[in-house]
Please model this.
Amino acid sequence: MKKYFDPQKIDWEDILSRPTRTFGDIEETVNEVFKAVRRDGDKAVREYTLRFDGVSPESMAVQEEELMEAEGAIDGELKNAIRRAYDNIYKFHKAQKTSPVEVETSPGVICWQQKKPIQKVGLYIPGGTAPLFSTILMLAIPAKIAGCKEIVLCSPPDKSGNLHPAVLYTAALCGITRVFKVGGIQAVAAMAFGTESIPKVFKIFGPGNQYVTVAKQLATRYGVAIDMPAGPSELLVLADDTAIPSFVAADLLSQAEHGADSQVVLVTTSRELLQKVEKEVGIQLGKLPRKDLAEKAIDNSRLIYVSSRETAIDLINEYGPEHFILCTAEEEYYLENTINAGSVFIGNYTPESAGDYASGTNHTLPTNGYAKQYSGVNLDSFTKSITYQKISEKGIMDLGETIEVMAAAEGLQGHKNAVTIRKEYLRQAIQKVG
Ligand SMILES: NC(=O)c1ccc[n+]([C@@H]2O[C@H](COP(=O)([O-])OP(=O)(O)OC[C@H]3O[C@@H](n4cnc5c(N)ncnc54)[C@H](O)[C@@H]3O)[C@@H](O)[C@H]2O)c1
Ligand SMILES: N[C@H](CO)Cc1c[nH]c[nH+]1
Ligand SMILES: [Zn+2]
Model:
């Protein structure tokens, strides 16, 4: 881990650089796969699955029996855990439902706005280094609550050409039936263009490695929306003397183990804590089964001592971490001043893993500093709003002149006429009656 001690000499550009900023080669591969999938459909998807995943599943589509059988293949303890996580995620996302907004902006002019579900959505579930079945809960639950009609799920097959039983069980639990053993760029391309087997969708959701993230970004050029760039996991911990070093180290390692391109950062106002955390990371790292992946991510990571909370908050907002853990006696100051973060975890007893799995918040979050302009996945991600208006006779007589004056000033006589003709009609009608 790189260490920075003197705030005067902080090299901000170096500190804030992510290991995933270099997209050059990846873009070339993504372009190639997109072109082939658009042209050759399933055939290209199969070829790239063989090339990148090393397998050729007999059928890309998961059969109904496979979904049913998965329940018997995982143990009761895991099923209970998934169901408990399901309940919490469901509760938190259901509570995000809002009522339509309705306002009478002028007498007789009523405007309202209502959310409608996106009809066709594609969920990407990562599976390269681990089958992240928890991501199904994070995407499928809000998609169902929002009322999305067609939900398609893609996830990379394992070495034997199958999906992990926990992926199948969780998909079935969430009521997802269109599941495909396809991952990486080829999955995103298939959902963007549609193939003989995989339906085209309107919006693609889900996290993934750099290939998946760049592919999602490219998909937007072909008229498909995406949730956000949700790439390799990141964590920034802000801690002072009140933090427990072994907890901080465990949290840093929890995100480092996602992959070599993950990044974790400690920002602290305590030199002593920094030293202790560094030591703890060394001890705990050795015990992780995914030590190799975590070790590489730890190499990319930073331990930063800052002498003031103002410098700390500038750094946090400039970095815009995906996950932000706050373990400090000055909680309120940091909460009030944090503007850019995907999801915040507060206090010594709130590990980031809680949000990854079961507390209820969504773990699909913006990385790479995109927390400056994107929210994490939430219920609104699966809806779009339509605005409505209804103007009465009284309303058009009252607001009409405003519209006429503005339309004339823009030189748009047709716009003005659409109002004038109505006003004239109403005047004549009144005269006839009167
Ligand atoms: N930001 C978030 O919300 C969030 C949430 C969960 C996970 N994540 C991140 O998701 C990522 C999951 O990555 P993963 O790799 O385990 O699974 P993945 O499913 O994202 O990617 C695996 C696929 O990548 C493709 N691939 C691998 N090497 C390739 C190459 N050289 N060329 C072209 N394609 C290639 C393969 O098709 C493979 O199936 C991790 O980086 C993790 O940190 C992020
Ligand atoms: N930390 C990941 C989001 O960056 C989500 C996840 C899934 N499983 C474990 N962790
Ligand atoms: Zn995680």
In short: The chain has a mean pLDDT of 95. Residues 396 and 423 are 7 Å apart (CA to CA). The pocket of nicotinamide-adenine-dinucleotide (ligand 1) is lined by residues 29, 52-53, 126-129, 132, 135, 156, 183-185, 207-209, 211-212, 230-233, 258-259, 262, 322, 363-365, 367 (CB under 6 Å). The chain is about 45% helix and 15% strand.
